[in-house]
Amino acid sequence: MSGKPSFYITTPIYYVNDIPHIGHAYTTLACDVMARFKRLDGYNVMFLTGTDEHGQKVEKSAAAAGKSPLEFCDTVSQRFRELAAFMNFSNDDFIRTTEERHKKSCQALWKKLEENGHIYLDKYAGWYSVRDEAFFAENELIDGKNGEKLAPTGAPIEWVEEESYFFRLSAFEEKLLEFYESLPPTVLPNSRKNEVKSFVSGGLRDLSVSRTSFNWGVPVPGNDKHIMYVWIDALTNYITAAGYPDVESEKFKTFWPADIHMMGKDILRFHAVYWPAFLMGAGIEPAKRVFAHGWWTNEGEKISKSLGNVIDPFNIVEEFGLDQVRYFLMREVPFGNDGDFSRQAMINRINSDLANDLGNLAQRSLSMIFKNCDGVMPVPGDFSDADKAILSAADGLLAEVRGHIDVQAINKSLEVIWKVVSDANGYFALHEPWALKNSDPARMATVLYVTAEIIRQVGILIQPIMPHSAEKLLDQLKIPADKRGFDQLGSDHRLSSGTNMEKPEGVFPRFVDE
Ligand code: MSP
């Protein structure tokens, strides 16, 4: 193998009952940023996304669309692949739960759990929500508008009474509570970890893990009257893609346990309670971290199909630009918190952070180099204290950014980068290179060189967030493709003087609202 450290990150696999919206794009984007960051930081990365295609919910949606389940899944799954390409996501694999490799993996996991005595046959009687694909206890239900009982998520429920296999979840309480205390943190953000802990310490009931009332799923090995509960099937995708059941394979040994399962807060319980318990039951190590991010609202309102305010990622990218949308989603909201999507906030970020702060700094300094330094990167003179201060701020960025990325504080990583951008603007304004053209051309050359060097480092660091724009900036600086990794950051790899430059073109246009 490569000798590099490995890093495995996953998105939830998306239900194909619905076309992709901003929530899906957001989760995958965060993973894409993490994956790109780790690759640039020297890791051997596996980044997985895909579609969750079994279960009653999908079966019903297919029927409503007048298609066979598989035909229906093929179409919608394809739409998620298109979204990934369109958003420039760098996933290494795209898994569909209807694939043969996955069926094999689910059945192997099931058999292992059965062999280890964690699965037994009994009867289930209780409430089920198809929309959530989850069982609920009586005391969890809420009252609907017309006095009807609803799932805690507001979804309709139905009474289910059937023979069912159960997983001995109750046996894993202590092990799970121990798992939540391990370091580095296994569940983030902390507030979410506390929620999970209190749920588990409140006592766990065994979990119904098979259904007999529908067909669209993976049959239970040895009893195909039963279809596996869609969540055991879905969660297993994470090990399928790592090569399970071949636990001796190079791939599995390299990438399992996964480093991060990323998801929205709505599905944390499945990932932080059920999934580690299944794995522990099968004698497989759980993933090292589960991170639950917040939810977006649209102009202050909850996003829902019935309100008709679903945000289509294809549309906003058409309107605002891909890197702009990627930047906004990662910058606007502390990662982990809920956030509000508003046009005005998007336009402000585009015009202030991107066009004014970084865009202008790059455009002004590079144009001056092109015009006033005979089109070549100048040779700097001795660095003044001010030069050294701004350079050392840029040189220190990687360590700071890495610290934030290690705990998925993606927005903070951008804040520290933009602090340097803003200081560099201050530096540029204070030293007025345009006024030095005739009076002190050598000093002008130094100020321009220092500014360009800041842009080089910022350009390298923002590649995970805005791959296209960063590429344009680094192209303008004539940084060779093999000199764009994070090993090139800091003072050892300053810009080469004497390189021929071209007339630069603005990378971050202002957004003019019509
Ligand atoms: N199929 C399950 C996951 C199985 S993983 C083994 C599922 N799929 S989903 O299609 O509903 O998509 C879930 C992801 O989209 C979640 O991470 C969820 O939080 C995210 N979002 C859906 N709407 C969202 C917002 N409004 N805002 C942010 N993310 C949201 O659950």
Task: Summarize this structure briefly.
Helices cover 46% and strands 16% of the residues.
Structure description:
The protein has 514 residues and is an alpha/beta fold. The protein has two domains: 6-294, 3-Layer(aba) Sandwich (Rossmann fold); 343-493, Isoleucyl-tRNA Synthetase, Domain 1 (Orthogonal Bundle). 46% of the residues lie in helices and 16% in strands. It has 19 helices and 18 strands. The chain has helices at 22-40, 56-64, 69-86, 100-115, 173-181, 190-201, 230-235, 237-240, 250-255, 268-281, 313-320, 322-331, 343-372, 385-395, 397-406, 410-431, 436-439, 441-461, 467-476; strands at 6-15, 44-52, 93-96, 119-129, 134-136, 142-143, 149-150, 158-167, 187-188, 207-208, 210-211, 219-220, 223-228, 260-264, 290-293, 296-298, 301-302, 339-341. The strands form five sheets. A six-stranded parallel sheet has the order 3-2-1-14-15-9, with helices on both faces. Strand 6 and strand 7 form a beta hairpin. The termini are far apart. The mean pLDDT is 96. 5'-O-[(L-methionyl)-sulphamoyl]adenosine (MSP) binds next to strand 1, helix 1, helix 7 and strand 14. 5'-O-[(L-methionyl)-sulphamoyl]adenosine binds at residues 12-15, 23-24, 26-27, 52, 234-235, 263-264, 266-267, 295-296, 303.
